[in-house]
Amino acid sequence: MKDILSVENMRKSDAATIKGGISGKELMARAGKAIFESVEWKPPVAIVCGVGNNAGDGYVLARLLQENGIACSLILLEERFSEDGKYYYDKCFTDIMPKTAGENNLKDKGGIDVKLIEEIEDLSSYRTVVDCIFGTGFKGEVKGKAKTAIELINASGAYVVAVDINSGLNGDSGMCGNAGQTQTGEDFCVRSDITISIGSFKPGHFLNMAKDVMKQKVNCDIGIRPVEKPYRLVEARDFAEYFSNRKNFSNKGTYGYTAIIGGSKKYSGALRLACMANAAMRSGAGVVKVGLPNSLYHDLIPLILESTVFPLSDDDGELVFNEEEFKALISNVKTVAFGMGIGLSNEVSKCLKFLLENFAGTLIVDADGLTLLSKMDREILRHSKCKTVLTPHLREFERLTGCPKEEILACPVKTAETYALDTGAVVLLKGPSTIITDGVRTYITDAGCSGMATAGSGDVLSGILSAVCSYIPDLPLAVAAGAYINGKAGEKAQEKTNPVSMTAGDTSMCIAEVISDIIKT
Asked: pTM of whole model > 0.85?
């Protein structure tokens, strides 16, 4: 796993490192060197600088480029500098080679050119443009000279390098301050070919708009260690052991019985449940039991082979709660996935309430189940007999928490952590990258793609979760593994089709390939 630090954690960690004996100037020098070594530079290079320490990294970079014979220009928003930044700005105009008569600085020798942003009409003459305007501490809206600079960068046609994070993007949320003022909001943050994170990744490198404005991202370790617990970026090797060591001396019961409960006549339940059952089986479940309204029984039978079907009482395709049937269905299962296309009737609400109060395994609640849960008192979650996993998208989480979506988008990690701590549930908050937290440990997975914005993607995820949560004992890690598998399967499906045409079924069919990749790590 890789560390992801909140902006505040990064600020504190940076201060602690300096207090521990590594000067701010030294850290700035390390950052500039790391940036220089991370890019294949195509001259001429323009480095667009603001007024803070992010600009200081740019000044270090400018000197290194000059030392290595790569033509570059500094383009300043203002002639104003941080203390450490001013030190390295001045060094750009001291001799690199021994002085000769009449030569006082690099500008005298045709070295680093300096311009103010108001002197620039466009940046089209540069092959590489570096964004050193704002750092990760930026909040609010982009205005004035910074807005002009970002517009020039995005219109340059050059290879764009963003330092630490794309200017205009919030380091904690991955949102632009101006989002919503245009169709996409992207006009007011830098769109980069590569973003070079300094010290540790931040949540804003992954969440919300980040994937749409960063083509590539790398992190450069400059010796700053976190003083507070970091979030963690999940990688395949973090859970590979659970997929690569299946023993011959085992059977289907070893890897868990799971139940999938959902479907209704109104919501094409049979097809959705078949997709979920397939996803669960391909994700390693020992046995999948599909509980669905009895009226859908004959529709589902031709669609599944490996799973078993458990008909439940219904009224014209709508589930009717029958306690004895539910007791029988959950009697020998480790996990239950509940809510997909199941409807919002009072009878369905009784089913969910029964599971929360009586099931001793892990309950994954999705879709209609989340809507029903949002109408219940939180005490039922706080005192549930089962371990609960909630898988909301933004609108569903808005209903669960009562927080406006704007507040969730502004603080997605903290909002998810707070709700998880309050309820005792593991929260999987869906988005371009996925947040998984029990309030104590927080994971982020950046697997996934735009083609997954299609009906049924959440059903596939719930099917995967129902399987992996039955045999990975660490529940938050199991949920993170499920999100990772789902996202990577979506990426593979998109490669084989395209972002417009792919379906959730395409994702399901790629699960086996992803697990093969995990086993090989």
From this structure: yes
